[in-house]
Amino acid sequence: MSLTKKIVTYTLLASFTLIMMFPILYAFLISFMQGGEVLQGKLWPESFSFDNYISAFEKVPLLTYLLNSLIVSTVIMIGVLAVSSLAAFAFVFINFKGRDILFYLFISTMMIPWEAAMVPNFQTVQALGWLNSYAGLTIPFFALAFGTFLLRQQFKTIPHELYEASQVSGISRFRFFYKIALPVSKTSMVTLGIYSFLTAWNMYLWPLLVTNNEAVRTVQIGLKQMQSQEISTEWGVVMAGVVIVILPTLVLLFLGQKRLQEGLTQGAIK
Amino acid sequence: MKKVELINFQKSYDQRTQVLKGIDVIIEPGEFFVLVGPSGCGKSTMLRMIAGLESISGGDLFLGDKKANHLTPSQRDLSMVFQNYALYPHLTVEENITFGLHVKKIFKKEQKMRCEEAGEMLGLTDYMKRKPKELSGGQRQRVALARAIVTHAPLCLMDEPLSNLDAKLRARMRSEIRQIQRKLGLTMIYVTHDQTEAMTMADRMMILNGGEVQQIGKPMDIYNEPKNTFVASFMGAPPMNLIHAKVKGSSLVVDEQWLIPMSESIRAAAQLNEVTIGVRPEHIQLANDDEPGFVVVVSNVEVLGTETLITFNIGDKKQWIARWSGQWNLRIEQPLRIFIEDQHLCLFDAQTGGKLDGSQDSSFLNKEWITI
Ligand SMILES: Nc1ncnc2c1ncn2[C@@H]1O[C@H](COP(=O)(O)OP(=O)(O)O)[C@@H](O)[C@H]1O
Ligand SMILES: [Mg+2]
């Protein structure tokens, strides 16, 4: 690559990155500004003080919300991984009549938007008495067609001979599942785990519907609360809340990235 | 050691086409039995049915004296080596070898002992902590073998275990597998499409084509007495030379050129208008001056060191190969006079390919060959 080409490429890349990152960067900077500074349209805070962060924790029960979000997202992640991997395993390694038809039926539910199923889901959860509980927040999300699809594709790449070899040595199906199929599919499992965790973390509408007290509400609702309640002029405080809320997401992405890059199926067959 | 008995063994995947068309065979305890045939003839299918990985559509399977049609693979007490090795990629060599032993209620200490023993036998001691991807093809193959050995199962099945190795390694593994099988007294059923492997390894072998048994027997018997043209052309490298001949009066005529007088007895035995003549490459000789011979023209020469393969044209389109020991420096297009002893001529039915009885018996052919 010639020097001019390099300069052009990097300039373009840098400016697009800046455009993409600007909202987050700006939110980060605002979180250190005093109320007046924001309205004056300043880009850089006068001083970096943590006053806004402190008041964010004081004005709404942010810590409770964070904890709730953490619990809900983790439970959903585990639930999705367990249900999807078991379903995908059945679709790949167990022969039964109408297996493929059932799978395509399963997949076709991906075309029904979640919002369309919201009312019946709400009624179900209400009938079960799960309003204002972790169960109502998490269980409806366990069956994820996308997750089953992703893991089925992954399991299909496992050579069938591995399964047959384990059958010959008398290893049970479940042992094969958790000793061979899962470890070999670590990469896809991590991907799906992160995906479902983040989706759950960013959930807004459903928690709003099924909760109405602070004890089980999640962060996204907390943010909305901050923004719409008494402190609507205090943008610094709201942004401090936002920064706190996106931190776990970033941490998770950084941790997961390494795992995501590992290829694990090499050397299974010639 | 375990006897294996197949009775009218059949397989159909789609209820319409028969992949295996009724196979009967008894494999003796401690025998090295090779299943050989061209690709797609049903070898793997048969092996997988014995292993219990594929259902049996018809007939019976006996392992030992027990009917095994409906046993699960692990109840059959056998081990299996797959063509692509089927090693667990995330486990070390040691874990791969011992994985599954706990099912057989073998204690950790015993597992370790067996693993070391098998590793030693196959020269894997230095690689026990490595993952499969850190091994060469030959080493992976050995791990797969070790995994079969540690189970101490009396019956071992192998499906083309050497086909992913290069020629040199293949030759070495052939003899290693054979030695291990003898040492442990395993009953072995070994699938291959390679006739050299079959010839060199088998106690007995079965040649399969299109789901039907062509011949069962000891390698040398099969080589010397092929039951039909398929076996004749499949076994041996290069294979038996074949050519059509017409029966005219009391003679066989090859390509309107050669005349071979026939005795009365063979004509009575084979009421045919056409036969196929077969000759092994090593039985084609250079004719001495006093012997009757045919003149053929050399079209290719391959000197292999201790022997030479000479390709020559015979008839309109056919080419035959002769194998002579020593190094022969022949020109292309050079005419040669060849001679075949009568006892080395095999006659087959030209329609069915079946061997004509008595054709090994030299008495039915007159001594003289006459060129028209
Ligand atoms: N699972 C299967 N479903 C349908 N047909 C199969 C299946 N496995 C093998 N066959 C067919 O059975 C025949 C024999 O196959 P196989 O036993 O694999 O041959 P080989 O091992 O001798 O090359 C082939 O024609 C193949 O197409
Ligand atoms: Mg095969």
Automatic annotation (TrEMBL), chain A:
GO-annotated biological processes: transmembrane transport
Gene Ontology cellular component terms for the protein in this record: plasma membrane
Superkingdom in the source lineage: Bacteria
Protein localization: Cell membrane
Main localization, broad class: membrane
Family indicated by similarity: Belongs to the binding-protein-dependent transport system permease family.
Protein's recorded name: Glycerol-3-phosphate ABC transporter permease
UniProtKB/TrEMBL annotation, chain B:
UniProt entry keywords in alphabetical sequence: ATP-binding, Cell membrane, Membrane, Nucleotide-binding, Translocase, Transport
A GO cellular component entry from the record: ATP-binding cassette (ABC) transporter complex, substrate-binding subunit-containing
Every ABC transporter domain range: 4-235
Molecular function, one GO term: ATP hydrolysis activity
Protein's name according to its UniProt entry: ABC transporter domain-containing protein
Xref: PANTHER family: MALTODEXTRIN IMPORT ATP-BINDING PROTEIN MSMX (PTHR43875), TREHALOSE IMPORT ATP-BINDING PROTEIN SUGC (PTHR43875:SF15)
UniProt-listed InterPro entries: AAA+_ATPase, ABC_transporter-like_ATP-bd, ABC_transporter-like_CS, ABC_transpr_MalK/UgpC-like, Mo/tungstate-bd_C_term_dom, NA-bd_OB-fold, OB_MalK-like, P-loop_NTPase
Keyword Transport: yes
Classification via Pfam families: ABC_tran, OB_MalK
